[in-house]
Amino acid sequence: MTRKLVCLPAWALLAVLVACSNDKKADSKAEKEAIADTARGAAVTTVSQEVNLPKPFATESTKKFAKVIGWPAGKTPTAPAGFTVTKFAGGLQNPRWIYQAPNGDIFVSESNTMPNAKEKVAAKLSGKAKSQNLGQSANRITMFRDANGDGKPETQQVFLSELNQPLGMLVLNNSFYVANTDGLMQFPYREGQTEISGPGKKIMSLPAGGYNNHWTRNIIANADGSKIYVSVGSASNVGEHGMQEEARRAAILEVNPDGTGERIYAGGLRNPVGIDWAPGTNTLWAAVNERDELGDDLVPDYVTSVKEGGFYGWPFAYFGANEDPRRKGERPDLVKQTLVPDVPLAPHSASLGLAFYDGKAFPEKYRNGAFIGQHGSWNRSQFSGYKVVFVPFKDGKPAGKPEDFLTGFLVGNEEEVYGRPVGVTVLKDGSMLVADDASNTLWRVSANP
After folding, report:
1. How far is Cα 171 from Cα 179, in angstroms, rounded to an integer?
2. Is 59 exposed, middle or buried (0-12, 13-18, 19+ CB in 10 A)?
3. Parallel, antiparallel, or unpaired for β 432-436 and 403-406?
4. Which has the closest alpha carbon to 221: 181, 187, 257?
5. Segments of 270-420 assigned E as strands
6. Which residues, at least 6 apart from 399, have a Cβ–Cβ distance to it below 8 Å?
7. Domain extents for the chain?
8. Using omega within 30 degrees of 0 as the cis cutoff, is the peptide bond preceding 257 cis?
9. What is the tally of helices (H) and strands (E) in the chain?
């Protein structure tokens, strides 16, 4: 299939305009100390609050991986008073993302990072291997059906298999779409069917793989189903492999349902996994996992409205025109264009999941607000994330700071965790499902009558 990019803003050509010779990185300790001495912190005003950014390298970059030990019998995550948390399903293989079809069927993509031999050795030595499920990916989608709505599915079976690290799912126009790491797949679909055995077709190729967990690709359609939006994370931390490797990455792409008409909707988004529409609006929002190795408290992850044609800084700047010292002087034009995100979140918290609460079962304060699944840090001396946070909204805009909602994943000894939340989905009955991929569990959060 022949395809061309259309309506590209000037910054979207950066992968072509920036030469490999510009890929310099402050690697030595002396260079970092020199940068820290001359760099300045910044106070940035966002829609929701003011955030004080420290100097780059104000603290030493640290690796600290959590050890996942699984949940003891009878123990669950903790929600605020007035809510009940139950296990919806267990025994899965790295359940990372959840999607509910219009008829109520629930689909879960089971896939994980697949390191090569060298990466496996490094993961074992660093402790990373104990922090997540590594190795052979299940590469499947499992279907659940809870016909009587009691929070206990009567049906659980493999819906689609032999995929390539799938994440995002979508039912649209009698088709079931799956976002594999290397492309957007389309399968014929009839409402209520319990499995797909046909081969389907790849309607859009995507750059595969990526830094850490940046292999994930998410998808969502607009209200009238005329466009599909595809989130693609960067191939690197801060463009260290050359910007030619970042073409069509660190961006949200827009395509027609048949895969044609591709364009970059917005860019400079390092890893925009969670995407959703704010209720009652036509505004797309994204949860973005920001860059590493600038210190404990830099750079904050964030949730932001995504402006068509907008540029959000990566890799040249962050939180507005704050230049990343590792890309100093390379693209002052893009630094100047960098938009300030709307809601800052905890640095290095791996804020990946995003779902707006469009139900009515939760108390009023939660309605139309955003839930964010934070998978948890590794590049920080003290853990951050490992929870689901909530951001209140009013009239389609943030109306307060993030607050804890689902906690209890940390054991308390500063080394171990029971699990790691990631994908978050609001169900038609008003309850919420949270994918805990590290413990192979789906949690259901419901409001008490």
Report:
1. 12
2. middle
3. unpaired
4. 257
5. 274-277, 284-288, 300-305, 317-318, 322-323, 343-347, 351-356, 370-374, 387-391, 393-394, 397-398, 403-406, 416-417
6. 48, 392, 393
7. 10-96+211-447
8. no
9. 4, 32
User: Within 13 A of 234's CA, how many CA atoms are on the CB side?
Assistant: 24
Rounded to two decimals, what is the model's pTM? 0.93
For residue 2, the one-letter residue type is T
- Give the Cα separation of 140 and 261 in Å (integer): 28
Question: Token pair of 360, please?
Answer: 């009515």
Q: How far is CA 25 from the centre of its chain?
A: 26
Structure tokens at 93: 């293989």
Q: Rounded distance, CA 216 to CA 353, Å?
A: 12
Distance CA 415, CA 437 (A): 18
As a whole number of angstroms, the distance between CA 268 and CA 5 comes to 17
Neighbours of 271 (CB within 10 A): 28
Is 353 strand, coil or helix? strand
At 320, list the tokens: 């507005």
pLDDT given for residue 28 in this prediction: 62
Secondary structure letter of residue 203 according to DSSP = E
**422: enclosing H helix or E strand:** strand 421-426
pLDDT means over runs of 10, the chain (449 residues): 49 44 51 64 94 96 98 97 98 98 98 93 94 95 95 97 98 98 98 93 97 96 98 98 97 98 98 98 98 98 98 98 97 98 98 98 98 98 98 97 98 95 98 98 97
Residue 184 pairs in a beta bridge with 179, 204
pLDDT score for 7: 52
Is omega for the bond preceding 299 within 30 degrees of 0, making it cis? yes
> Taking Cα atoms as reference points, which of 426, 427, 408 lies closest to residue 417?
408
Spatial distance between the Cα atoms of 287 and 374, rounded to a whole number of angstroms: 10
Collect all residues with Cβ–Cβ distance below 8 Å to 53 and sequence separation of at least 6. Answer: 41, 42, 43, 44, 297, 298, 299, 300, 318, 319, 322
| The pLDDT of residue 43 | 95
Residue 141 CA to its chain's centroid (Å): 18
DSSP 100-157: E-TTS-EEEEE------HHHHHHHHHHTGGGTS--SS---EEEEEE-TT-SSS-SEEE
Rounded to 5 degrees, φ, ψ at 366 are: -90, -15
- Let me know: does 221 contact 179? Beta carbons within 8 Å: no
Q: Which CATH number fits domain 10-96+211-447: 1.10.3470, 2.60.40, 2.120.10, 2.60.34?
A: 2.120.10
